[in-house]
Design goal:
Belongs to the DXR family. With about 425 residues, this protein is an alpha/beta fold. It contains 16 helices and 12 strands. The structure holds NADPH dihydro-nicotinamide-adenine-dinucleotide phosphate, 1-deoxy-D-xylulose-5-phosphate and manganese (II) ion.
């Protein structure tokens, strides 16, 4: 594996594995790679198995070597769907791909021989694959921020310098602003936040928020969990921890600023008062392409800012009082060890409860705060995957107990 392979220097296409291929990041990644066949070849894909027909279609059309699902019970359905897809005349490979299914299947694909693994799985479920890709020596294009955040030191100690390339738009922006620079010259990182659908709202209005309102992100079309996380600002909290872990910058020197247009994806302020920003219309295909081709740019990956029209870029202070999720994330980030895993797992449970109508919108972060407070006294260093997973399970259970209790109380009112 070399960093400079690509059509520009006459190399072969990069072999890519896409985890979470049926999701928002995964489908956009497939769009990126299929538009640049001279640069990329997809050799493996994986998904949760909720849309086996789509997964099979992707596998046959891309001609992958391997396709994986995490549950044994979807394997036969997947094999059948692959045969149907080939019967339709899609794809060119004579042989159908190998099917892997079960608990370790996704991590096995993450270690498949290739140049770069894009982890586009959602949530803590992506951690084993992140570790597997790193241990196998693959470059890891990381959209699944949760794995870095909950794995923390565990992930960092397995990664050699430059092995993780951020795909999250803010962190891709920061990496672009930082490249070629000197660490001692960096003063602050400034993460931009769209503000979500409830920007400018007061806290008392949030009690009546419905899932449909929370799912209406003003600038990005994304999967359900990250979309709700953007509405609660948990996403920005996770991103503060992600920035700390990726760039080794103190929490005190990471700011959040609201930028409703989502064109400036983040900024780096330098010691001489200069600020560099990365700007492009909101389109994840740009950071995905850069993550797959790093350090090269992929020409035409996304549209640039259109300067023929008026551009208005607003920046506003972030409302810490209405959205306590960022402050809480700073707290768990500073606590370190297993604390971020408790924050994330409780949040994943609460988002599911909110989307199922079992928890109010403010109840999400209120419950996460309760779980974090309970975990504070027992936070431990996270030195093994099992330790992280144990805290993840405990926090999910506590969140379920707390939200179950909340639902029962409101039902008896
Ligand atoms: N969407 C975006 O624009 C951005 C996303 N991100 C991050 O990227 C990640 C993916 O987000 P997004 O694409 O929006 O999410 P989606 O919900 O749209 O997609 C998630 C993908 O992961 C798969 N998946 C879920 N659970 C498992 C599992 N246990 N094993 C294997 N695959 C699984 C899903 O398959 P199935 O549906 O079958 O379960 C699906 O393919 C998240 O970490 C998110 O925070 C970061 C920045 C921007
Ligand atoms: C596209 C991306 O990177 C998301 O994480 C996005 O930043 C979410 O928007 P918010 O700024 O509203 O959280
Ligand atoms: Mn982001």
């Amino acid at each position: 594996m070399t960093e400079d392979r690509g059509p520009g220097d006459g190399g072969r296409p990069r072999d890519v594995v896409i985890l979470g291929s049926t999701g928002s990041i995964g489908t956009q990644a497939i769009d990126v790679v299929t538009r640049a066949p001279d640069r990329f070849r997809v050799v493996g894909i994986a998904a949760g198995g909720r849309d086996v027909a789509l997964l099979a279609r992707q596998a046959v059309r891309l001609g992958v070597e391997v396709v994986a699902v995490p549950h044994e019970w979807t394997a036969s359905e997947l094999r059948q769907a692959l045969s149907v897809e080939r019967g339709r005349g899609n794809g060119s490979r004579a042989r159908l791909p190998k099917v892997l299914a079960g608990r370790d299947a996704i991590a096995e694909v993450a270690a498949w021989p290739c140049d770069v693994v894009l982890n586009g799985v959602t949530g803590a479920a992506g951690l084993a694959s992140t570790l597997s890709a790193l241990d196998a020596g693959r470059t890891l294009a990381l959209a699944n921020k949760e794995s870095l955040i909950i794995g923390g030191p565990l992930v960092k100690e397995r990664a050699r310098p430059g092995q993780i390339v951020p795909v999250d738009s803010e962190h891709s922006a920061l990496a672009q602003c930082l490249r070629g620079g000197r660490a001692a010259e960096v003063s602050r990182l400034v993460l931009t936040a769209s503000g979500g659908p409830f920007r400018g709202w007061r806290r008392d209005r949030l009690a009546a928020v419905t899932p449909a309102q929370a799912m209406a992100h003003p600038t990005w079309t994304m999967g359900p969990v990250i979309t709700v996380n953007s509405a609660t600002m948990v996403n920005k909290g996770l991103e503060v921890i992600e920035a700390h872990l990726l760039f080794d910058i103190d929490y005190d020197a990471i700011d959040v600023v609201v930028h409703p247009q989502s064109v400036v994806h983040s900024m780096v302020e330098f010691t001489d008062g200069s600020t560099l920003a990365q700007a492009s219309p909101p389109d994840m295909r740009l950071p995905i392409a850069l993550g797959l081709a790093w350090p090269d740019r992929v020409p035409g990956a996304a549209a640039a800012v259109d300067w023929s029209g008026t551009q208005i870029w607003q920046f506003e202070p972030f409302d810490e009082e209405t959205f306590p999720a960022v402050g809480l994330a700073r707290h768990v980030g500073r606590t370190g060890g297993t604390a971020p895993a408790a924050y994330n797992a409780a949040n994943e449970e609460c988002v599911a409860a909110f989307l199922a109508g079992r928890l109010s919108f403010p109840g999400i972060v209120e419950t996460v705060a309760k779980v974090v407070a309970e975990h504070d006294g027992v936070a431990q260093a996270c030195s093994t995957l099992d330790e992280v997973l144990a805290v993840d399970s405990w926090a999910r259970l506590r969140a379920r107990e707390l939200t179950g209790a909340a639902a029962a109380t409101s039902a008896t009112r």
